[in-house]
# Entry
Amino acid sequence: MIGGIGAVAAPDVCSRAGCRETAAWRIDWQNPRIHTGDRWKTWLACDDHIEYLRGFLEARSFPVRVAPFEPESIDAAAERDA
Ligand SMILES: [Zn+2]
# Structure
């Protein structure tokens, strides 16, 4: 593996643990107990895991927004977080 913990070598890979597929979807979500205002987390998902990841969040009654993944928008968000 190139990089290591914290390295963003492949920012367009599915967020499901162990999955190396290129993301086709983005999932923006909030945990109302720890996220306030406009602070949203973003996960990425491939076609195989979009339903799993969305279901995981919806089972906890978190607000979830799903949209087709556009790499440019993630790059901009990652720079703000770093
Ligand atoms: Zn996946």
Observations:
- Residues 29 and 41 are 5 Å apart (CA to CA).
- The two ends are 22 Å apart (CA to CA).
- The helical segments are 50-58, 71-81.
